[in-house]
Specification:
Layout lengths: L3 E6 L9 E6 L8 H10 L1 H8 L9 E5 L7 E6 L10 H18 L4 E4 L11 H16 L7 E6 L2 H12 L3
Parallel strand pairs: 1-6, 2-4, 2-5, 5-6
Antiparallel strand pairs: 3-4
Length: 171
């Protein structure tokens, strides 16, 4: 059965999925945007768990429980800051998506939701980031067996249009 990819406009902290991805900073200790919202919704246990993880490299991801969220797990993915594409940003961003799927596959989870990693305060252009996200996820899913549904949780109507155009286009 092929994995269903879907873009939706929603608050990622309310999704009932096996795992959500947090667009985290390298400290993993919370920040603004989706990172701050996930830390607030998950409760203080998330910060405590993150303090024990010792940070995370850009392009990588780490895992915690979901705590007070409907999601069972939180994947903390550290995307790159956009510098015009001159500092390996596409490869680092793709690494976040690949590593997140590896973590989900390792736990044999079935549903996963991604925010737009690096597109907020890190300045990655939405169109380019979405293309990396969709292409990387499709490629990674071709090598997995247990993931049934992946959501791209969009913050704005514009982001939603970009993701839907990519998902509805040529496969």
């Amino acid at each position: 059965m092929p994995t269903l990819l879907q873009a939706l406009h929603a608050d990622i902290t309310t999704l009932q999925v096996d795992a959500i991805v947090n667009a985290a900073n390298p400290s993993l200790l919370g920040g603004g945007g989706v990172d701050g919202a996930i830390h607030q919704a998950a409760g203080p246990e998330l910060l405590s768990a993150c303090q024990k993880l010792g940070g995370c490299r850009t392009g990588d991801a780490k895992l915690t429980k979901g705590f007070n969220l409907p999601a069972r797990y939180i994947i903390l993915a550290v995307g790159p800051v956009w510098h015009g594409g001159t500092r390996n940003e596409p490869a680092l961003l793709a690494g976040c998506y690949r590593r997140s799927i590896e973590l989900v596959e390792g736990l044999e989870l079935h549903t996963l939701a991604f925010p737009g990693i690096s597109t907020g305060s890190y300045g990655y252009p939405v169109e380019q980031a979405a293309e990396v996200a969709v292409n990387t996820v499709r490629d990674a899913l071709s090598q997995t067996s247990c993931i049934e549904k992946v959501y791209f949780c969009c913050f704005s109507s514009y982001d939603l249009q970009v993701y839907r155009r990519l998902l509805d286009g040529p496969q």
